[in-house]
Amino acid sequence: MRGTDPAARRVLGGVRQGSGGHGAAIRFRATGGFLLVAHLLFVGWFTLRPLDVPWVSAANLQPFAGIKADLALGPLQAARQIGGGVLLLAPLGVLLPLAGGRVHVSPLGSLVRTVAAGALISLGIELLQTGVPGQVVDIDSLFLNAVGVALVHLAVVPAARARLRRRTDVEHHATLLREDASQGPTPTIPRVGIAPWSDASPASRT
């Protein structure tokens, strides 16, 4: 590309950088999609498997009633019950954005979409549990699952995206510098002197 002006080299460098970024996005989506499916399979097995128990408690459809009952059991039991609800779908706070593969996105919009998707998945689990022996429907699980998704998303995703954006910008800048250095200085056209104009024509001097 010798002879190409610096602006054109920057455009071409941006195209090459975009191609590399697109490949990285595909890898992120593939990894995130695989981990997301694996986690959902585990959650489905854990929450929808039939349980052989002598009795089950009634379904809880009153918000926060289950949490109050867990707190009444003591600190250790409450931590186990409530912590389990928070942690069950918490990895979705990272896996859903990772499967999306987007880096330049509104933090608030990403949080809202991720929590909404986690809440819908939790609601689907609760509805399926109505037909599974030994499983108890608890509306508080929906709240705890959504809180877990939100906490993990806020703790990991914004910082990770900011780091990826900085890394992409640094790599792009380094690519442009290497492009400019490899092309060398832009060639210049030497100025050609113009002979002074004379009012006297050859005919007038004869």
Query: On the 0-100 scale, what is the average pLDDT?
Result: 81
Treating each run of at least 4 consecutive H or I residues as one helix, how many helices? 6
Helix- and strand-based class? Answer: mainly alpha
Low-confidence stretches: 1-19
Q: Would you report the number of β strands?
A: 0
Radius of gyration: 32 Å
Helical content stands at 55-70%
Query: How far apart are the first and last residues' alpha carbons, in Å?
Result: 56 Å
Query: Major sheet, described briefly?
Result: none
What is the percentage of strand-forming residues? under 5%
Element order, helices and strands?
HHHHHH
- What's the shape? elongated
3D structure, described in words:
- By secondary structure, the chain is mostly helical.
- The protein has helices at 6-48, 65-71, 75-88, 92-100, 107-129, 139-183.
- It contains 6 helices and no strands.
- Mean pLDDT is 81; it is low at 1-19.
